[in-house]
Amino acid sequence: LMGASKRIMEMFAFRHSLEIDVSMARFANVAFSDGSLLFGFQKRIEKSQPIVAPNDVRRYFLTPKESGELCLLSTIFGENRDIFFPKLDENLDLITFSEIAKRYLANLGYEPFLCENEEEARKLAKVLPKDGFYPCLFAPSDTTGEKDYEEFFVDGERLDMQRLQNIGIVKNDANFDSKKLEIFKNNILNLKSSLTWSKEDVLREVFELIPNFMHKETGKYLDEKM
Hints:
The chain is α/β, with parallel strands linked by helices. The protein has helices spanning 2-14, 37-46, 64-77, 90-93, 97-107, 118-124, 178-194, 199-209, and strands at residues 23-25, 29-30, 51-54, 58-59, 61-62, 82-86, 95-96, 111-114, 133-139, 158-160, 167-171. The strands form four sheets. A four-stranded mixed β-sheet has the order 1-6-11-10, covered by helices on one side. The protein has a three-stranded parallel β-sheet with strand order 3-9-8, with helices on both faces. A two-stranded parallel ribbon has the order 2-5. Helix 7 runs antiparallel to helix 8. The chain is globular and about 60 Å long. The two termini are 23 Å apart.
């Protein structure tokens, strides 16, 4: 749903491209940004809790500085309706959350200790760190909305991969549907003003605007893990 909400934001921003030049950036996870899983690693260690992460979900990561620079470059060099994204190598830069956790712990002086279940991880979190080990529970993802891998563009988008050495550009035409965007906005505002809505209500509106949106609902969420 996060990716879909970003795409909808792009559509709304492009509505203004008929009046002013609009450019923006698509970037990967910002490492240790507030609310991210990596931010959660920090908080878990502060509270002497086990590290929990999926071992089958791969993501690209940018530093806060890199993500800010990418946005700034899009405002300076971007043409109207350009979307800048980093040219990252799938084989070199795409990394699992579990591998990031291992590297983060190593940077803090800990060796990861792989646990078999939640009970073992909780128990060892109280005793292992003083010996230089940190309990980790890595398992296949079963949470809602997790893609196996990350991508910056989709089939059918027009790309310029030659203009800049380390940045790709998605070229866009003014092909947004203003009527659908207005309906979406009004329906969301109505849900908000009613003071009661469900996830299904929001998803229904998203599907109306992005018919090819893929959403995997499992009833489980990453921030609820242990």
